[in-house]
Amino acid sequence: MKMPTYQDMFLKDAIGFVEATAYEQYALWFINKEATEYPLEWSDNRSGIMVHIGDFNYEPIYLSLVSAIIKGQKIIFWHPTSPIVNYNMIYAWIVKNAPNTARVDQVVNKTDAGNFQNIFRK
């Protein structure tokens, strides 16, 4: 049996992946805190991890991952940090590494900051 890595432990129990820069995460938090009548319970974990997902044309592709507990559910916020970005590689990495808790009918629950509300299951 393979020992879980720090990455495995970081992703454990996540219900979805949201593509969002640090500023977009802040904007989502701020809108939730200030502009909604019924703000969501939101607890950030500002420590995160940087993941090397592979190389494209000899250039490394890196993702920054941070998590938050929102509405009692763990959400992973991610954004590419390398000069070269290959979204096909990124999505393949997310599909390969997403825990079962982030899958609905075997499809990974993922979205972007503009559609953030869709990350929560009905």
Describe the structure concisely.
The chain is α/β, with parallel strands linked by helices and 122 residues long. The chain is 25% helix and 39% strand. It has one domain.
Description:
The protein has helices at 6-11, 22-35, 87-97, and strands at 14-19, 42-56, 59-70, 73-80, 103-104, 107-108, 110-112. The protein has one domain (13-101). It is 25% helix and 39% strand. The protein is of the alpha/beta class and 122 residues long. The protein has three helices and seven strands. The protein is globular and about 50 Å long.
Averaged pLDDT: 92
Question: Which structural class matches the secondary elements?
Answer: alpha/beta
Terminal Cα separation, in Å?
35 Å
Which radius of gyration do the C-alpha atoms yield?
Answer: 15 Å
Give, in order, the helices and strands: HEHEEEHEEE
Regarding quaternary structure, what we see is: single chain
Describe the strand arrangement of the main beta sheet, using strand numbers.
Answer: 2-3-4-1-7
**Spatial shape:** globular
Which spans have pLDDT < 50 for at least 5 consecutive residues?
Answer: none
Keyphrases for this structure?
single chain, about 120 residues, alpha/beta, 5-stranded mixed β-sheet, two-stranded antiparallel sheet, 7 strands, about 25% helix, globular
